[in-house]
Amino acid sequence: MLAGGTGGAMLAAGFQSLLPGGNLSVIANTADDDEFWGLLVSPDVDAVIYRLAGIFNDEAGYGVNGDTFHLLAALEQMGEPAWFRIGDKDLATHVVRTDMLRRGSRLTETSLELCRRWGIEARVLPMTDERVRTRFATDSGNFSFQEYFVREGLAPELRSIEFEGIDSARPTPEVLSAIAEADMVVIGPSNPLISIAPILQLIGATLPRERTCAITPIVGGVALKGPTVEMLRAMGWDASPVAVARMYASVASSFVIDSRDAELAGQIEDLGYRAIVGDTVMSDGGVGLAAAVLAAYEGAQPSAR
Description:
This protein is of the alpha/beta class. Helices cover 40% and strands 18% of the residues. It has a four-stranded parallel β-sheet, sandwiched between helices. It has a three-stranded parallel β-sheet with strand order 1-2-5, with helices on both faces. A three-stranded antiparallel β-sheet has the order 7-6-8, with helices on one face.
């Protein structure tokens, strides 16, 4: 599965609940990673790990359940900027990751070790071990992902999106192996412009199109999570499942839309997809959507499989 943000992480948990142990690999976006107080924070990787471990903080939309912010409060008291809200339990993850990196581990190795420590059988794989960073050009200047999303609150008008370092970055052997061995690849319902686009720039050419299914992040003209609709419009795209399907047409052969948008199935099929219509709002933690995707995949396979 390709995932970024909370929606992709939730669907990953749905798949984990249905698949035998060890049969799920999640390739996570790392373009919104950033450094704070010398620690590498990898929000999408951590969201997937925390969700798979059953400790994700749904109320906050990030971090760990029941977290406290004593260290952050102390830093703020000392005059440090505290707009990026790192909780005490969450901080432990970043300490372990950064310490492993300083001792020579690859980013992938840090993620797999965190999975092991949380008792997760699925593999959470960073899309690359190399530095890639999302940069937002706005009418108020150029910002990193966290600066634009958290500190600026998305207020400046968006002009363009770039992925700094993407041209020299390479997918890891673990990522390439996961794709090559996969019976099915699922592009999660994450923001296509900032969560999925950098992953596809790295591995899009390696995806088995006939075994790849993409899921819309937009239902009835509204994004399930985050500013996907606003960003699509800012970048000149129609904010609809059809527009997202156009982005993925070269890498996926099936596309899942919500029953509320069933009338769009014909337009999706005109793009060369097999359209799958169902409930994409994951009110059950992603289990129902994961089951529907697996059932559709199995139904499309030869009977001898």
